[in-house]
Specification:
Elements (H helix, E strand, L loop, with lengths): L1 E5 L4 H12 L3 E6 L15 E3 L5 H10 L2 E6 L6 H6 L1 H22 L3 E7 L22 H19 L3 E7 L1 E3 L14 H10 L5 E3 L11 E2 L1 E3 H16 L5 E5 L5 E2 H12 L6 E3 L8 E2 L4 H7 L7 H13 L4
Parallel strand pairs: 1-2, 1-4, 2-3, 4-5, 5-6, 6-11, 7-10, 8-13, 9-14
Antiparallel strand pairs: 9-12
Helix pairs in contact: 1-7, 2-4, 4-5, 8-10
């Protein structure tokens, strides 16, 4: 069967395409190249340049490539940007999903893997966030992902579609320097940027109720994210029912833990400045991962040094 990966020329999407392709799947990429790049697409994998909002275009792609399953990763994903321009996020992430699902139904595509986010949870006050933790998102981005899950749930109930939604926690690292994260929005690339510019990284809050006073997050390697998508796609091929899963490691690392590992990777201690907390940052967000282990047989294999080391290699390979 053939899998269409939307957003397959982007950071996470390119890793998913590589995992599927190397496992022997037939893959085609649909990407508008607004943040992705052709060079990230695996050799031999066709790339269709366009947007999921263009229904006739998507139907043609599905028909021309005889697509039988979709991995939907294409989306806007910056929390701050979503606060400033919510209409953009609802148009791209919700209307785009509606158009894609309409095309899938028209062309008889009944297997669907959805790229969701831990942002659907908001600020959960629990030790481990499981999939039944209520979703109370705090941004239009998180809301758009939760609405997407609801839409897919309803389509699965009404039609013959089967859906697996994957809620990512904090994605980091790279499978190779050429696939490094091009954005500077998350902690690890932000630290690299500060160090590259001769600045001390900022730590937002040092008085949280955690062992070292800094926020704790569940960091997961992007190659593990890709492996989870592969497991989801294969599960749908074998007839597995619809389900929602967290993708994380089930253990947390504090901001200072990350800085220590960065120091180990670059060979010198990282000096930092503690500044005021950011509004809305929870002290701890760590995934419960029992459901995905049991349901898909998936378990993240790569640790924080793997993530930081591969992210550093990708950072050094960035164009000057």
């Amino acid at each position: 069967m053939t899998w269409l990966v939307t957003g397959g020329a982007g950071y996470i999407g390119a890793h998913v395409v590589r995992a599927l392709h190397q496992d022997g799947a037939q893959v085609v990429v649909l990407d508008d190249l607004s943040t992705g790049h052709r060079s990230r697409v695996e050799a031999g994998v066709p790339l269709e340049d366009g947007t999921v909002l263009d229904g006739p275009f998507v139907r043609r792609v599905l028909a021309d490539h005889q697509v039988s399953g979709v991995v939907h990763i294409a989306a806007k994903k910056q929390v701050g940007e979503s606060m400033a321009d919510p209409l953009l996020y609802y148009r791209e992430n919700v209307s785009g999903l509606v158009a894609l699902l309409d095309a899938c139904r028209s062309e008889g595509v009944e297997r669907f893997v959805f790229s969701s986010s831990a942002a659907t949870y908001g600020l959960p006050d629990v030790e481990l966030v499981d999939e039944d933790t209520p979703g109370v998102p705090l941004s239009p981005y998180g809301e758009s992902k939760l609405v997407g899950e609801w839409l897919l749930r309803d389509c699965a109930a009404a039609y013959t579609m089967r859906v697996i939604s994957l809620r990512y926690f904090n994605v980091a690292g790279a499978a190779g320097p050429e696939l490094g994260d091009p954005g500077v929005f998350n902690l690890i690339p932000l630290v690299f940027q500060a160090l590259s510019e001769g600045r001390r990284p900022r730590v937002f809050g040092g008085d949280y109720p955690t062992p070292d006073g800094t926020c704790i997050r569940d960091y997961v390697h992007v190659a593990d994210i890709a492996d989870a998508h592969l497991a989801a796609a294969r599960a749908l091929e074998s007839g597995s029912p619809s389900e929602t899963y967290n993708i994380g490691r089930g253990e947390g690392s504090s901001v200072l833990d990350v800085l220590r590992v960065v120091g180990d990777v670059i060979g010198k201690q990282v000096e930092y400045d503690v500044v005021d907390r950011r509004p809305g940052d929870p002290a701890r967000v760590v995934a419960a991962v029992d459901r995905i282990r049991k349901g898909l047989g998936f378990e993240a294999r790569r640790d924080l040094p793997d993530m930081v080391g591969s992210a550093w290699a990708g950072w050094q390979a960035r164009p000057a």
